[in-house]
Specification:
- This protein has about 150 residues and is an all-alpha fold.
- The chain has a domain at about 5-90 and about 135-150.
- Helices cover about 70% and strands about 0% of the residues.
- The chain contains eight helices and no strands.
- It has helices at about 5-20, 20-45, 55-60, 65-75, 75-85, 90-100, 115-120, 120-140.
- The two termini are about 35 Å apart.
- Keywords: Membrane, Plasmid, Transmembrane, Transmembrane helix.
């Protein structure tokens, strides 16, 4: 499995082999990387109402669980979009997998790695799938080595 930074470099290589100017390819890869690694997770976290206040918005306002669920049903589409943006971020999948593997999350603290990996397999699979898709794109698309030669 390639690292997230390795995936960025692989994406830059793929784009450099297919774009007319390598500088544009690196800028495009950088923009994609910023979007997936920095912007998308922040959108997901920032738009989550429970992340706005330390103890959670509903608990701070003294709203009971039944009322909280009733309020959140009004925002079902909003929550779906927010969660979808967060799920697209490789950084979030890496964060969840690492927090579980290192025992930072309380439910995984002191548990064997096999048990943790069985529970967090989807995050690892998402990261492996992203790396595999980038590698497949590298080898399936025709190379244009002339793009890399300096004029």
């Amino acid at each position: 499995m390639t690292s997230p930074v390795g995936s960025f470099f692989l994406l830059g290589l793929i784009l450099a082999l297919h774009m007319r100017r390598p500088a544009h390819a690196i800028m495009a890869a950088f923009a994609i990387w910023l979007t997936l690694v920095l912007i998308a997770p922040q959108i997901g976290d920032t738009l989550d109402p429970d992340n706005q206040v330390g103890a959670g918005v509903f608990r701070t306002l003294g709203i009971a669980k039944p009322q909280e669920k009733q309020i959140m049903t009004s925002f079902a589409t909003y929550e779906t979009v927010r969660d979808g943006i967060e799920q697209l971020s490789p950084a979030k999948h890496l964060e969840r997998w690492c927090f579980a593997a290192l025992g930072i999350k309380e439910i995984y603290y002191g548990q064997p790695l096999v048990t943790v990996m069985r529970d967090r397999w989807s995050d690892a699979a998402w990261l492996i799938g992203l790396s595999a898709a980038l590698l497949a794109a590298l080898f399936m698309l025709p190379f244009n080595i002339a793009n890399l030669k300096k004029d």
